[in-house]
Design goal:
Helix 3 crosses helix 4. The protein has one domain. The strands form three sheets. A seven-stranded mixed β-sheet has the order 2-1-5-6-7-8-9, with helices on both faces. A two-stranded antiparallel ribbon has the order 3-4. Strands 10-11 form a two-stranded antiparallel ribbon. It contains five helices and eleven strands. It is of the alpha+beta class and about 220 residues long. The radius of gyration is 22 Å and the shape is globular.
């Protein structure tokens, strides 16, 4: 519903799409892909234009080799791309899941992802309606970059929505945020989603939520 609502407001050069990644099992992505040519079985080298085989480089043994895994993250987000700049990502809406808040390492993964996007001049919005966990990822993000928000109380709210972007003003980096505390039963806010320096569209959370309930027949 967020994608549908944004698509009605985005200028023609921008496209929005969903991305869902449930651990390591399921993924929908708006990105484009290329098929890589497969290497024939048993091939030990490549053939250059002259027909001469070249030896494949054999790397040394790894420094360590352990049985382990990286933290699997449930990801629910909406991404907006600029088609005039080779589908450059310009905005991302992160829908926080319980798995994003259940462990410190999961906090760190999402916070680091948001910080990396901000550095690339991507507008980021976080919508956190997880009532079973008490952490605040927006507060964690500010702590990562060495900043604080006077809006945050000594105990940051566990339900919130925030939109932020990093831009340059007079050759100095400037972080701008729009934050709202949420509560069960209250109307969801509208956040600015920045597509360019002087271009934003409204991210209308309440109308998208109402449309979702109507479509899924949720009373």
């Amino acid at each position: 519903m967020l994608v549908a609502a944004l698509s009605r407001r985005l200028p023609p050069r921008y496209v929005a799409g969903p991305r869902v990644h449930l651990g390591a099992y399921f993924e929908i992505d708006v990105a484009s892909y290329e098929e890589d040519g497969s290497i024939p079985p048993g091939s030990t080298g490549s053939v250059e234009e002259g027909g001469a085989a070249t030896e494949v480089w054999a790397p040394p043994a790894p420094t360590i080799a352990v049985t382990t895994g990286l933290p699997d993250q449930d990801e629910y987000d909406v991404r907006v791309y600029d088609t005039r700049r080779q589908l450059r990502l310009v905005a991302a809406v992160e829908i926080v899941s319980p798995a994003n808040k259940d462990r410190p390492e999961h906090h760190a993964v999402l916070v680091a992802t948001c910080a990396a996007r901000l550095r690339e001049q991507v507008c980021v919005a976080i919508v956190d309606v997880v009532t079973t966990r008490q952490s605040n990822l927006y507060s964690d993000l500010l702590e990562l970059i060495g900043q604080t928000d006077p809006w945050l109380a000594s105990v940051p709210p566990s339900l919130y929505a925030a939109s932020f972007r990093w831009r340059r003003e007079h050759d100095a980096p400037r972080l701008e945020t729009w934050t709202h505390a949420l509560a069960v039963g209250q109307t969801l806010p509208t956040l600015p989603l920045w597509l360019a320096e002087n271009l934003a569209v409204p991210l209308e959370l309440e109308s998208s939520y109402e449309e979702t309930c109507k479509t899924l027949r949720i009373p």
